[in-house]
Design goal:
mainly alpha; Growth Hormone, Chain: A; about 80% helix; globular; disordered N terminus
Length: about 500
């Protein structure tokens, strides 16, 4: 017997949209913030009984984000088909369960399984948050609601830093995962009470397309993450990159032929949608690449405690908290291309500034964080509104999935690329004796174990690597931002006035 469909309930936006917005923003901040929180735990994990290598550490961070990014669009489609509230609640339950597995992990493989399960839960949460929000909000209020929700995605990273720092300073990395599981359970109870039900839509879930997309992204990240240890010309790395390209091409071919694709590549013929998707990927590339570097840089380079490192990112949130509400009006006044140009220039400039301020007084470093926050403040609401407006509201789940996928894909690439450059820079600047050691130490913990007397030289090497990684991220944001702005200009010219 087929399951009964959810009853289509349209709550009165003026009565219900406020509580729904609050709940969906908190759920969003939870799943986004978990990416940032785990970055703070990297030094503890490196010194733990898990004994992870440098590539293991990157996979512990990225296993969550990769599954999150790859499944978020299918999870949005599942919400359209099965009911967004039900999928959201299931996702919060899975998220909590995965966090518990990670908290109890006795070794790296179990930890990675827990991280992947948590990523599956996050994938079910994020797109259905925006789908529920769009249906619960009156059309006139949607730009305002989307701006606040977009701010929650940016602030979530900082909340993860501060909250994670507080938990880690009082306990271990295991306590962090246990606390996240508890917060997820509370969010589940809140969403069950406040989130409205929406109508189900007949959709076919694209399993082949989903599996190919996951395989292509994982292959790409294997090449990036394993490059420093295996060698960029190594068989594993070259095979991974080749598989990523071939699987990506196969994915496009499959998506063009199936009647209900996971993500129809033809959608990207719309210049507004394609440029916004690239732009969202780019913003979160820089944002979470920064989070990965910043957490360890403040602890190793400045001697901050884990709580101080968590609090040290707060200046980035000031523009998001104070200025986000004004961004829709600013976009209306100066246009999308000008807004995005300013966003990418500020983000790139802030990252570059941080690379030179890493050894300066903290207020100088904090100023760089504020500049990056200004860039995110301008970009996130602008790009979110572009993606949402490019698809009809009945496809809100797919719109939410695309927004979430581009964010998390950017986050995964940011952690992988920036972390890889950091490791390469660190090993290059190690003291000569350590640089000749076999195998070459690739984490601060490994280096200090071999040469505890070289503490200052080892932390200086880490700082050099972090500075190089930040400059590389700044260059990527600047160069890749140009086609995003160009796409926004084309979209403006082709959109009927």
């Amino acid at each position: 017997m087929a399951p009964l469909p959810e009853v289509a309930v349209r709550p009165a936006p003026t009565q219900r949209s406020g509580p729904v917005l609050a709940c969906m923003s908190v759920c969003t901040a939870l799943v986004v913030g978990f990416v940032a929180a785990i970055n703070l735990a990297v030094p503890q994990l490196a010194a733990s009984s898990l004994r992870p290598t440098s590539s293991d550490l990157l996979w512990i961070v990225d296993a969550y984000v990769v599954i999150f990014a790859c499944l978020v669009i299918p999870a949005g489609a599942a919400g359209d088909k099965l009911g967004r509230k039900g999928v959201l609640l299931a996702g919060l339950g899975i998220f909590a369960g995965g966090a518990v597995v990670s908290a109890l992990a006795p070794n790296v493989p179990i930890m990675l399984i827990g991280r992947a399960v948590t990523g599956l839960g996050a994938a079910c949460v994020l797109p259905n948050c925006v789908g529920i929000l769009l249906h619960a909000t009156a059309p006139a209020r949607r730009p305002h609601a989307l701006a606040i929700w977009a701010a929650a995605t940016g602030i979530g990273g900082v909340v993860g830093n501060v909250g994670g720092g507080a938990v880690l300073s009082a306990g271990s990395w295991r306590a962090l995962f246990a606390a996240v599981a508890l917060v997820a359970a509370c969010c589940l109870a809140w969403a069950a009470r406040s989130a409205p039900r929406s109508a189900r839509h007949e959709r076919t879930l694209d399993l082949p397309g989903t599996l190919l997309f996951v395989a292509a992204v994982v292959a790409l990240l294997i090449g990036i993450i394993e490059g420093p240890e295996q060698g960029w010309a190594g068989t594993l790395v070259l095979t991974a990159f080749a598989c990523g390209i071939l699987l990506g091409a196969w994915w496009v071919r499959v998506e063009l032929r199936v009647p209900h694709p996971m993500l129809d590549p033809r959608l990207f013929r719309n210049p507004a949608l394609s440029s916004a998707a690239l732009g969202m990927t780019l913003v979160f590339f820089g944002n979470f690449g920064l989070f990965y570097v910043n957490a360890s840089l403040l602890q190793y380079g400045r001697g901050f405690t884990v709580l101080q490192a968590g609090l040290g990112i707060i200046p980035l949130t000031v523009p998001l908290l104070v200025g986000t509400r004004y961004v829709p009006a600013l976009i209306g006044r100066i246009g999308v291309p000008a807004t995005l140009s300013a966003a990418f220039l500020l983000t790139s400039g802030g990252l570059l500034g941080l690379s030179y301020a890493s050894t300066m007084a903290y207020p100088v470093y904090a100023a760089g964080l504020v500049v990056i926050g200004l860039g995110i403040m301008l970009a996130a609401p602008c790009l979110t509104a572009q993606i949402a407006s490019a698809l009809p509201v009945e496809r809100a789940g797919i719109a939410g999935g695309l927004q979430s996928a581009t964010r998390e894909l950017g986050s995964a690439l940011g952690v992988a690329v920036v972390g890889t450059i950091l490791t390469a820079g660190f090993t290059h600047h190690l003291p000569a004796d350590l640089g000749r050691h076999t195998p070459l130490p690739r984490t601060v913990k490994e280096a200090l174990t071999l040469a505890p007397a070289d503490h200052t030289a080892i932390t200086d090497a880490f700082t050099h690597g972090a500075d190089t990684a930040l400059r590389a991220a700044a260059l990527v944001v600047l160069l890749a931002g140009a086609p995003v702005v160009a796409g926004a200009c084309r979209a403006r010219r082709t959109t009927p006035q």
